[in-house]
Amino acid sequence: MNKLLTSLLVMAALLVSPSYAQGLFPDIPKALGEPHPEGNEFWRINHPALLAHDRDLTVLEGIRDIDASLKSCVACHAVTGPEAAPLPVTYDSPEFSCRVCHDYVAVKIDCFTCHASTPEEADYADVLPSYGGTAESLRAYLERISQ
Amino acid sequence: MIIPTENPNGAEISRRDILKSGAALATITLAPGVTLMAFGGKAKAAGDDGLKPNARWGLLIDAAKCPEDCSACVSACSTEQGWENNGLSTDPQWIRKVTLREKETGRTNSLPVMCQHCEAPPCVDVCPTGASFKREDGIVLVNRHTCIGCRYCMMACPFKARSFVAEPVTGQRTSTPRGKGTVEGCNLCVHKIDRGDGTTACVEACTATGNNAMMFGDLNDPESEIAKAVSTYASVELRADLGLNLGVRYQNI
User: Fold this and answer.
1) How far apart (Å, rounded) are the C-alpha atoms in residues A27 and A91?
2) Do B235 and B115 have their domain in common?
3) How far is A13 from chain B (nearest CA, A)?
4) What is the per-residue pLDDT across A48-105, written as a single tens digit (0 to 9) for each?
5) Of B10, B26, B49, which one is at a domain's C-terminal end?
6) How many helices (H) and strands (E) does chain A have?
7) Which of B1, B135, B181 has its CB closest to that of A49?
8) Residue B177's domain spans which residues?
9) B97 & B142 share domain
10) Tally of domains within chain B
11) How far apart are alpha carbons B131 and B143 in whole angstroms?
């Protein structure tokens, strides 16, 4: 009886230990820009509704100065490829920010059949205050981030 | 995701206002998924973003100034919107050069034809999902989020200004999302208009060639160059017999 109790306790301890829990969840890549003021938990839960709402504002009413634009998401959450290649990975790569979580929960998103999954240079300027505006400074910035 | 609460002015606070209040917004995360928010920021005044109400954006094209061998407007559109022609029957039809020939006299005319941005668009009438729509400022667009690719609008359009994306697309411009299974057409460079550029890619390119055959502007604004031009000089709309009141007008055809 004691043996059984001990093994149960060990198993429970393993489950709640941070190292074990880390292996269970996807390793979400760090974004390049400033953190969300509303907090990551808020965005992890509400991003589909926020994006769906703002897409209608943009398409129907032409309101483009919005904080939840997919363009900004893509620019800020860009993931550089392996070997610190300067170009961000596309949706085709499993390392793509959205896919890290969405693959984990087996949800296929179709945003990027139409939307560009890599930012254009001008898009970085909106989300990265330290980005000077040239390809050189962008590359330097991304290298600094990847270190 | 509108959070319906009343503010002192009686206006509804939308999620957008919450985000707009930016730094003055205080959030407290109690537990994962439970967030307290406090408001105090100055919401952005309405009307300083988004489309210009009461505008009627349009183009005036002078066919006499449009050389047959020039296609600067077409390539500018291709670059701006991120589409390309492959010589296939399924090629995009955002804008194309058309040569008209008068049967009796043999006089030929070359002119660009794109979505004519009708006041009463047949594509909007036939769309079963409401994806084909006219913005308040007269621009006729496809909302690709709701487009099911049925192509009724392509059949309804008298100008063949719509085309279907039949193949998967990669390398889109971030300002122009486009992909397989949806219909597309000239959007009058809506992202440039919203940005306040006051021109379109085709007009910019035409002006750059020195031909000056195209003019963009607000037909409803009597002070605008285009409104003055159409009220002074003769211009026609294509298929005027259909009574669609087009936003694109032509001279010398």
Assistant:
1) 17
2) yes
3) 22
4) 888 888 888 899 999 888 777 888 889 889 887 665 456 788 898 888 999 999 999 9
5) B49
6) 8, 0
7) B1
8) 57-251
9) yes
10) 2
11) 5
The phi, psi pair for A72, rounded to 5°, reads -70, -40
Q: What distance in Å separates residue B211's CA from the closest CA in chain A?
A: 30
pLDDT per residue over A134-146, tens digit each? 556 566 666 655 5
The single-letter code of the amino acid at A102 is H
* DSSP 8-state code for residue B176: B
User: What distances in angstroms separate CA B53 from CA B2, B118, B136, one per listed residue?
Assistant: 23, 17, 6
What SS3 class is residue B218? strand
Consecutive H or E run containing B18: helix B15-20
Q: Are B198 and B205 spatial neighbours (Cβ–Cβ below 8 Å)?
A: no
Measure A86 CA to nearest chain B CA, in Å: 17
Closest residue in B to A62 (Cα–Cα): B50
Shortest CB distance from A42 goes to which of B27, B172, B173?
A: B27
Contact B41, B11 (CB under 8 A): no
Domain boundary among B31, B49, B67: B49
DSSP A82: G
| Residue where the block lists tokens 């793509």 | A96
Q: Determine contact, residues A130/A141, Cβ cutoff 8 Å.
A: yes
Burial profile B100-110: b = 16 or more Cβ within 10 angstroms, e = fewer: eeeeeeeeebb
Residue A41 to residue B29, Cβ atoms within 8 A: yes
CA angle B15, B19, B22 (to 5 degrees): 155
Q: Is the ipTM of this complex over 0.85?
A: no
pLDDT digits (tens, 9 = 90+) for B213-234: 999 999 999 999 999 999 999 9
- Which residue among A39, A62, A90 sits closest to B51, beta carbon to beta carbon? A62
